[in-house]
Amino acid sequence: MIKRTLYKLFEPVLERVSRRLANKLILLFTIIIILVVASLTFISYGMLRKESVNNSISSTRSNLLLVGRNLESYLDGIGQLSLPQISYDEFNYAILHESEDYASKMYVEDYLKNLYFSRSDLEAIYLYVIKEHKYYYVTKENYNITVRVVEHPPIENLPWYKRALASPFNRSYQSFVKERTPEESQGDYPINSEKSFMGYHRLLRSIVTREPQAVLSLYFNSSVTDEIMKDIPFSDGEHLMYISPDNEPFVVDDREFYLQSEQAGLLEQLTPAQGGRLTWSDTEQKYLVMYDISQKEGWKLVKPIPYKQIYEAATTTRKLSYSIGLLFLIVSVVLVSFTSNRITNPLKNLSLQMKRFSTGSFDAEAAVDGNDEIAYLSRHFNKMVEKTNELINERYKMKIVEKNAVLKALEAEINPHFLYNALQAISTKALKNNNDDIVEMVDNLALTLRYCISGRDVVQAREELKHIERYLALQKARFGSRMQVEYDWNDSLLELRIPKLSIQTLVENCIKHALEKVSSTVTIRIEAHITPAHSVISVLDDGPGITEQRLQQVLSSLQIQWEDRGGEEAEEGDNESIGLKNLNTRLKLLYGEEAGLVIAGDEHGTRIDMRLPRGGLGQHV
């Protein structure tokens, strides 16, 4: 149904396009150009997309690996900073006796001050003494560094303390990315989360009993991490996250995006098995997620990159390709239209002249311009018109000649009747005078004349034989007893259809080349027999025969096509055998190439066979 509707919709357009060859050429080349441009654009777009993804993966992976190592070194530095190192015993002793020994208390405060001055990114330091339920803290107040001691309830229920207690490394990390609930903030230090991006808590144990004695908490601002992170190229639409092994966010560029990715389960997919990259989609778009997992602790540095941004160069190139393709299409259509019209205008003119010629305007003539195939066609069309005019004129002349011939034939009909009447009068006169020989000769001559001028070209053999008897009776009066005639004719061949006067031609050849050449008696033998392939009529004589040279000349003349014979250029010997050549040509025209004359002779006589293919005239004509 849809196909039929579309066909009806575009049928007028297709019909109009198909009317002219130029429109078809324009449509064809336009489709080809569109297909080529679209294919090249599609292929180049796919290659650019793939190349863009590979380049993005390669560059991002290198940057994440480098920055990840720097962040890992940064965390290692924090871990080293949190340990008293070689003064661990003194520091542990000071913690145990700070409440009762002033020197120990001062040692703790000096240690915290020195620790605070050692790093520029330290925002605050807290040292919680577990058995005393109080903490020392160091902050910057009006450009002065002071150490204060504050009573504090037990911290056993704080999440970061539980993690440090359970950690084999006696440490835990605290993130401030997520907003803390009042329950989570209850009992914790009064930290300004806007300035601090991470809290590092080190659990200090007794070397002997391994019981927790204090917790050193270091709170860092983002100055160092910002300096490290800036080595990662960052564009609009991209995101960057630094995630702890417990999937706690410590650095995020967009908190809402992090929460959305966490709810969608992205963080659980960031495993070493993925090879550091995966494809992930949110509700708006699809991302290429590149990440690096530190080998030591498993921190994840994650950079989601929108595919839209990766494909931006490819998309821009595709739009540019389409624009160039459209411009190329317009220019090509103009050129194709011009070229097509240049090609089809001669064809249109030729078609118009053909139409005029078909309606009877025989003066039609197509313009010939150039030497291409169309010019060749136009030139030959003009020749065809010229030949047609010549044939028409020739036909017209033939009509006139034919009418004149009919008039002459009507006039000539009087002559045979006059001749028959004259011969009849001579016969009657001779009969009255008892001249029987003359009567017989005149009657034979009249019947011979009537047979010769009859309108038939092919007769039965029995009619030809009767004619030969009358013809030889006339020749008998000329040669007398010197001419002897014998017959050996197969009765089954009496109905054979043969060319009129064909046997007479062979008999005349015997009279001319045998009886007229000698004064002795010559026997002419007429016979007919059948072979598997032919019906053969033979005429033989026992005259002087024919020389080998003359026989070859006659046989050669029989091979010349009748159209190729030139009367003025024919040799004298050819003129003597013109009857045989004409008969041979008639046989081949009537019966085909298998029919013809076969001549043989020597000093004892001549034999001429007229061979007709079995089946007779109907097999060929």
UniProtKB/TrEMBL annotation:
Topological category with respect to the lipid bilayer: Multi-pass membrane protein
The UniProt record lists the keyword Transferase: yes
The entry's keywords: Cell membrane, Kinase, Membrane, Phosphoprotein, Transferase, Transmembrane, Transmembrane helix
Pfam family for this entry, one: HATPase_c
GO MF entry, a single one: phosphorelay sensor kinase activity
SUPFAM superfamilies (UniProt xref): ATPase domain of HSP90 chaperone/DNA topoisomerase II/histidine kinase (SSF55874), HAMP domain-like (SSF158472)
Cell compartment(s), UniProt: Cell membrane
Domain HAMP: 341-393
SMART domains: HAMP
Matching InterPro entries: Bact_2-comp_sensor_kinase, HAMP_dom, HATPase_C_sf, HATPase_dom, Sig_transdc_His_kin_internal
GO cellular component: plasma membrane
Domain of life per record: Bacteria
Transmembrane segment boundaries: 25-48
Protein name: Histidine kinase
Protein source organism: Paenibacillus riograndensis
